């Protein structure tokens, strides 16, 4: 068994390298879309949580707790099967439905990232800005947010790394990501370990490279302070 392990792995990689490469591209695309729109929706939720209007802040809090308190796979199933039924006129593909589910999930976590980044800014600066005559909106835009971004961006990078790994659950719906490619290679070659390890190495290379970029970015942010 182990004597043929190396040759089998090279055989699988040689035959399906293009498919693995395509799967990596779809995984990155799915992750990038999720983080981009998740950041927009999550930021909106963060400001809603800070609202003085109880219904608004209550809705945001309930959403975050609901999403964070239920498994992502359950959310994927519910949204992927229910969304096309609720909005048949949109004719959503499996990829689009899975993307929506991932965005809604990521938004709940981004909401807490943004909220924590804003709260990390010294409250004294807000008080000083209001003393100087700036409105609450001007204080947030000119004083708080520019400083909060330095706390938020590295955390968003880490969210990107997390989403890359979480997209593996999307293979349940065969959307062409890395784990979908694994299932394809496994079924065609009747091997389990070899394509599994290839996919694992690709995941590691993607997440490790991105983590190093985030670390470098964090160092530059600290150096600019």
Outline of this structure?
By secondary structure, the chain is mainly alpha-helical. The chain is built from eight helices and no strands.
Write up this protein.
The chain is mostly helical and 225 residues long. It has one domain (5-224): Orthogonal Bundle (MetI-like fold). The chain has helices spanning 5-49, 54-68, 72-86, 94-119, 123-131, 136-166, 178-189, 193-224. α1 packs across α4, α3 packs across α4 and α7 packs antiparallel against α8 (193-224). The protein is flat, with a radius of gyration of 21 Å. It starts with a helix and ends with a helix.
Average per-residue pLDDT, rounded, comes to 86
Proper CATH architecture: Orthogonal Bundle
Main sheet characteristics: none
**CATH first level:** Mainly Alpha
Number of H/I helices: 8
Q: Structural class, please?
A: mainly alpha
What best-fitting shape do the alpha-carbon axes yield?
Answer: flat
Fraction of residues in helices? over 70%
State the CATH superfamily name. Answer: MetI-like
Determine the oligomeric state from the structure: single chain
Beta-strand segment tally: 0
Residue share in β-strands: under 5%
Order of helices and strands: HHHHHHHH
Q: Which parts are unreliable, with pLDDT below 50 for 5 consecutive residues or more?
A: none
Count of spatially separate domains: 1
């Amino acid at each position: 068994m182990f004597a043929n392990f190396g040759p089998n792995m090279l055989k699988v990689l040689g035959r399906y390298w293009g498919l693995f490469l395509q799967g990596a591209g779809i995984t990155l695309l799915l992750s990038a879309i999720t983080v981009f729109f998740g950041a927009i929706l999550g930021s909106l939720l963060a400001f809603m949580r800070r609202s003085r209007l109880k219904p608004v802040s209550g809705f945001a809090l309930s959403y975050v707790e609901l999403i964070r308190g239920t498994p992502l796979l359950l959310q994927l199933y519910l949204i992927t099967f229910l969304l096309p039924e609720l909005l048949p006129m949109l004719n959503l593909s499996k990829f689009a439905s899975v993307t929506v589910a991932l965005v809604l999930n990521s938004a709940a976590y981004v909401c807490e990232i943004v909220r924590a980044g804003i709260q990390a800014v010294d409250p004294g600066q807000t008080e000083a800005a209001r003393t100087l005559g700036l409105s609450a909106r001007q204080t947030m835009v000119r004083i708080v947010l520019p400083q909060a971004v330095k706390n938020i961006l590295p955390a968003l990078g880490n969210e990107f790394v997390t989403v890359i790994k979480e997209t593996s659950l999307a293979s349940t719906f065969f959307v062409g990501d890395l784990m979908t490619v694994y299932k394809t290679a496994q079924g065609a070659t009747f091997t389990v370990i070899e394509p599994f390890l290839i996919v694992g190495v690709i995941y590691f290379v993607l997440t490790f490279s991105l983590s190093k970029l985030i670390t470098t970015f964090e160092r530059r942010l600290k150096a600019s302070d």
